[in-house]
Amino acid sequence: MVKLEVEIAGLKFKNPVLNASGILGLTASTLKRLVEAGVGGVVTKSIGLKPRVGNPNPTIVEVNCGLLNCMGLPNPGVEEATKELKEVAGRFKVPLIASIYGFNVREYVKVAKNLQDIGVDGLELNCSCPHMEKVRLIGQNPKLVGKVTKAVKKSVEIPVFVKLTANVTDIVLTAKAAVEAGADALTLINTVKGLAVDVNIEKPILSGTFGGLSGLALKPIALACVYEVYKAKLNIPIIGCGGICHWKDAVEFFLTGASLIQVGTGLMVKGFKIFGEILNGLEKHLKRKGYSSVDELVGRAVK
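Above: the chain's sequence. Below: its structure in token form.
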């Protein structure tokens, strides 16, 4: 019999397939729909201290290898978000992970405390949004990543995951900083900086000029980051994210060192059925290979 359950940082996930932050909203009904679709854990859209409308349109453009977005972290702010999340916190049979961001350490800490108080099971620190300069600059500086992680860890008692960017020279350095500051897991990776230009109007298409590239083009980059961090033997669970649209994609992330995976753009392309498709394919693969759990796959491709 194949076991799909995975436990990291004291949290028990009924399977290793989660949604990625940023694709869906924050409503209780949307989060419930994710659970009904079969996810092993739910990740919210990134929540900040104050409300943000986000960038004006156009904020999303399809390119031939994926999607570029410069949404600008739109969210209702932590005060309103907690009202919505109170309806579901502690009521799911899977962990509820709140993604948070801030423009400085104080904001990260304040948002983290508020969300812990309403009963979320864990936090994912968005230190890596490529099209929000203040967040991007934090994520590209290992010292700042460590500072934010350490401050949040001191302020809460629930697990803290740190979502890192590939827009750095050496992601292992940033990962080490987060681990030394007390991170309970690392999410690798966020979207990477990209640009699309309209040849007729001769200007960048997105209102924010640059956007975050997601989708199939991101997978090789994300896999390389997971591989490098796992190989560095930092003794921390890794959550793989980037271009996962098929069960084979998920298996590649497990083989390179991820214990869990997150699906983002694939959800936009295939809808909620994608979770069942990945889980079904994963279970069949494990049976074919004679494995009894996902844990047996983790890191097998790392030399």
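The longest helix spans residues 273-289.
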